[in-house]
Amino acid sequence: MHIRPFFKKLTRRFSLYGLTLSAVMTSGTHAALPQMEAPSRGEGNGIIQTLQNHGFDIVSLIALAIAAAAFCGVAYHAYGSYSEVQSGKKTWGQFGLTCGVGALLLVIIIWLLTKGTGVL
Length: 120
Known about the structure:
Blueprint: H1 3-26, H2 47-87, H3 92-119
Helix pairs in contact: 2-3
């Protein structure tokens, strides 16, 4: 029964020492925030042009995500078509047609996204 108060005092004492030690150890360190990168088109002459350049970077990133999603969709569909060829539901010609149309679709999507970001 007498051991509990001893551990309570010991815990309080170590907490106080730990708090003091951490305050002393971190008092000399100062971390600076990283500087914001300039947009890919440069900072521009004013705030409006800088915001437009940041907007261009954001739209380019969204276009890249759309192209990646389209690629994943075509790959998923081609894999499903290959699976159906292996099970005998489709022929190799249908699989080739699926891959060819998918590749053409990807080329058109990437071309349209490139033209769309060029408008900005």
